């Protein structure tokens, strides 16, 4: 075990994967010699050479198109998109190509070796284009897996699963926690299951669901609720696609109430899917409607970041609303 | 509508010799008038820039130097969240803006504050944007340096790279249709030129023959990535030929050469509907932004060597030799800019944040009912927890 922050855990996962299998390569804008603008790939070029860890030209559609081809050839590309906000030039490659490669060819070809890493989320004074949470766009795409770690331990275990998963995985990294989240992480290889949620805190009165950096926000909200004598069960989805319906449904059948707390704008955020499914599965157990604490339905603002954000206070108020319904 | 017919495959000339054309078949020299020491190349005629315009260009250059320097310091002190310097590239932005007509549209990437200052963006307008306060034209919504001003025909900056390139083509198409004899100048970096939008924008401009000038600032780096890892060919300018477009490569640190190049490009664009790609060779002397430390990817020796070619000394030496400004006057002007920058910084710092009501404005022309409901809920929440939202709680009593 070693103390690592989230970036170091990602770096360690990449290191382990590259050492284990020489078909693993890591590339993207500035990831080579410099080690990436957040330094997630630092030291990898020095260790594994320029052919396995390298800078690409500045073209996201090219990065993912290239990665699709490399994965189709049988490699395990780990492509970095510098910010989640800049993934959209590659939207076509991801949605129409990555996600459908296997299905459209009747499994003659697949790009299962592909992993796309990208930092997402707000709270860093990033304004419109360094703050977005784009998971819902991709969650609407059958064929992709989407994973969001919330701490260093998860980051390494989930990333190692993602790299060697036989399906393409979009790996969203909560950049706000890159250095802020620190924890004990095994130095050797280990994996965590994709598609499995984690009950972060057991409780009896209400279930609050989130993923990635938002789990920390939920924990703070749960602390406030605890002072009111409310026992909150916190679930971290860890995977957005596929997501662990059973774990959430079981929890809600126990507590009878649910709030989803998410960073993305309210309308059509992934919480809408969670809410709809839980209402289907748990209708007779629910004591109040499933509620959502979300970002506003506006672009992500700079000066009003605090106001926009679905912070612990808004999540706490939503917990109260659910309880007092 | 194209004035020139596309190449007819039946009319392609035939050869029995297998020709493999070299990837470096074009090796375009860079146009330069002023040498690094500020003397003029033998036998060249400088563009006709009178004393008044020359001094305005120089003063803008000095202003941007000091603005960049002070705002990097302000970021280090935690007074603003982010800044991005144009150190070393001032001549490219200012020389090009100076060669345009005021009515021409400018679309920037983010390192062209010199062009905006030349257009007349005031020091307070700069500061209000940098401090995201309620006087910012962009209403505090974007990160620092994402300026924009309709009155000055300067399109608001957007962070996603390259997106403005095809937009410039579309804007210029509209200008051509309107018949008002204006053009669009679009700045972007040599890194951004790798984006798919670059290809889309240039190809469409060449096909539609629109009055647009694509102005690539080749400063050698895209964050840490050196130009030789960005492209294998001879830079950006030769690409124009592939699109059937005119190209100019110019020394971006020579303000006269830049001015002359853009003046000619503008003539071609507006008079002949010929889009032009200009590649201005320069060097990003500062870090990419305040979030960057270049010592991780380039040497001090390289930086020192490039510093010798920086654009301001060259221009200043020429102006002094010309007798249009004295060393003392130039220094005094710099000092004055500095005082004005500091005073404006202090003013902007004390201006309030935009009112919380602004948060839903401009998503659409009118806020939807859903947005109005969200705002009301937000305000009720802020009333409940005023201490948690100090920037706006004062306004929601
Ligand atoms: C689509 C997109 N991808 C990535 C980025 C992140 N990014 C911001 S600036 C930059 C480098 C740009 O280099 P260049 O175009 O050469 O301009 P310069 O900074 O040198 O002026 C990168 C990669 C972005 N803003 N947009
Ligand atoms: Mg550059």
TrEMBL record, chain A:
EC number of the protein: 1.2.4.4
Gene Ontology terms for molecular function: branched-chain 2-oxo acid dehydrogenase activity
Keyword Oxidoreductase: yes
Short name of any one Pfam family annotated for the protein: Transketolase_C
CDD domains found in the cross-reference section: TPP_PYR_E1-PDHc-beta_like (cd07036)
Transketolase-like pyrimidine-binding domain mapped to chain residues: 4-180
Keywords recorded for this protein, A-Z: Oxidoreductase, Thiamine pyrophosphate
Oxidoreductase found in the keyword field: yes
Cofactors named for this entry: thiamine diphosphate
Principal EC category: oxidoreductase
Coiled coil ranges: none
Gene Ontology biological-process annotations: branched-chain amino acid catabolic process; response to nutrient
InterPro entries, sorted: THDP-binding, Transketo_C/PFOR_II, Transketolase-like_Pyr-bd, Transketolase_C
Highest rank taxon of the organism: Bacteria
Entry function: The branched-chain alpha-keto dehydrogenase complex catalyzes the overall conversion of alpha-keto acids to acyl-CoA and CO(2). It contains multiple copies of three enzymatic components: branched-chain alpha-keto acid decarboxylase (E1), lipoamide acyltransferase (E2) and lipoamide dehydrogenase (E3).
Protein name, as recorded: 2-oxoisovalerate dehydrogenase subunit beta
């Amino acid at each position: 075990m070693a103390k690592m922050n989230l970036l170091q855990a990602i770096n360690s996962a990449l290191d382990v994967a590259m050492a284990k299998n020489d078909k693993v390569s890591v590339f993207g804008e500035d990831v080579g010699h410099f080690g990436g603008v957040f330094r997630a790939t630092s030291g990898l070029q020095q260790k594994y050479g320029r052919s396995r860890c390298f800078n690409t030209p500045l073209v996201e559609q090219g990065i993912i198109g290239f990665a699709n081809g490399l994965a189709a050839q049988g490699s395990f590309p780990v492509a970095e998109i510098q910010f989640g906000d800049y993934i959209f030039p590659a939207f076509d490659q991801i949605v129409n190509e990555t996600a459908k490669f296997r299905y459209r060819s009747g499994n003659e070809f697949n790009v299962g070796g592909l992993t796309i890493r990208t930092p997402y989320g707000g709270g860093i004074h990033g304004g419109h284009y360094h703050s977005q949470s784009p998971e819902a766009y991709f969650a609407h795409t059958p064929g992709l897996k989407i994973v969001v770690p919330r701490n260093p331990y998860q980051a390494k275990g989930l990333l190692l699963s993602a790299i060697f998963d036989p399906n393409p995985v979009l790996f969203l990294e909560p950049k706000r926690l890159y250095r802020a989240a620190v924890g004990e992480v095994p130095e050797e290889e280990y994996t965590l299951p994709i598609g499995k949620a984690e009950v972060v805190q057991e409780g009896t009165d209400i279930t609050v669901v989130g993923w990635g950096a938002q789990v920390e926000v939920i924990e703070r909200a749960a602390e406030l609720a605890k002072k009111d004598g409310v026992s909150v069960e916190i679930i971290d989805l860890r995977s957005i696609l596929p997501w662990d319906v059973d774990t959430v449904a079981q929890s809600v059948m126990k507590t009878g109430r649910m709030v989803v707390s998410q960073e993305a704008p309210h309308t059509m955020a992934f919480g809408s899917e969670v809410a709809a499914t839980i209402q289907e599965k748990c209708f007779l157990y629910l004591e109040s409607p499933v509620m959502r604490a979300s970002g506003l339905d506006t672009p992500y603002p700079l000066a009003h970041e605090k106001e926009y954000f679905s912070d612990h206070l808004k999540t706490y108020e939503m917990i109260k609303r659910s309880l007092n319904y | 509508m194209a004035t020139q017919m596309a190449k007819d495959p039946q009319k392609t000339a035939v050869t029995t010799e297998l020709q493999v054309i070299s990837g470096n078949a074009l090796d375009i020299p860079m146009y330069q008038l002023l040498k690094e020491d500020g003397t003029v190349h033998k036998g060249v005629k400088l563009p006709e820039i009178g004393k008044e315009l020359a001094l305005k260009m120089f003063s803008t250059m000095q202003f941007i130097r000091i603005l960049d320097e002070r705002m990097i310091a302000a970021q280090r002190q935690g007074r603003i969240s982010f800044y991005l310097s144009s150190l070393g590239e001032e001549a490219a932005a200012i020389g090009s803006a100076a060669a345009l007509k005021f009515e021409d549209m400018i679309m920037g990437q983010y390192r062209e504050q010199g062009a905006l200052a030349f257009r007349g963006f005031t020091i307070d307008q700069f500061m209000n944007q940098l401090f995201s306060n309620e006087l910012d034209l962009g209403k505090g919504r974007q990160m620092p340096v994402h300026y924009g001003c309709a009155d000055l025909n300067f399109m608001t900056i957007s962070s996603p790279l390259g997106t403005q390139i095809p937009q410039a083509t579309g804007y210029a198409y509209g200008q051509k249709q309107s018949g008002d004899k204006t053009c669009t100048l679009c700045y972007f970096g040599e890194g951004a030129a790798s984006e798919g939008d670059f290809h889309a924008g240039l190809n469409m401009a060449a096909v539609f023959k629109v009055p647009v000038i694509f102005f690539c600032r080749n400063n050698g780096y895209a964050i840490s990535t050196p130009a030789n890892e960005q492209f294998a060919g001879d830079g950006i300018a030769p690409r124009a030929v592939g699109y059937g477009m005119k190209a100019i490569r110019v020394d971006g640190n020579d303000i006269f050469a830049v001015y002359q190049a853009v003046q000619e490009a503008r003539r071609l664009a507006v008079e002949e509907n010929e889009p032009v790609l200009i590649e201005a060779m320069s060097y990003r002397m500062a870090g990419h932004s305040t979030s960057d430390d270049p010592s991780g990817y380039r040497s001090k020796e390289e930086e020192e060597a490039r510093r010798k070619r920086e654009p301001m000394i060259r221009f200043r030496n020429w102006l002094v030799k010309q007798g249009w400004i004295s060393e003392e006057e130039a220094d005094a002007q710099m000092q004055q800019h500095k005082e004005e920058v500091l005073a404006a910084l202090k003013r902007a710092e004390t201006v309030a944040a935009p009112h919380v009501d602004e948060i839903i404005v401009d998503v659409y022309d009118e806020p939807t009912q859903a947005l109005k409901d969200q705002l009301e809920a937000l305000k009720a929440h802020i009333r409940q927890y005023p201490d948690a939202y100090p920037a706006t709680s004062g306004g929601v009593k």
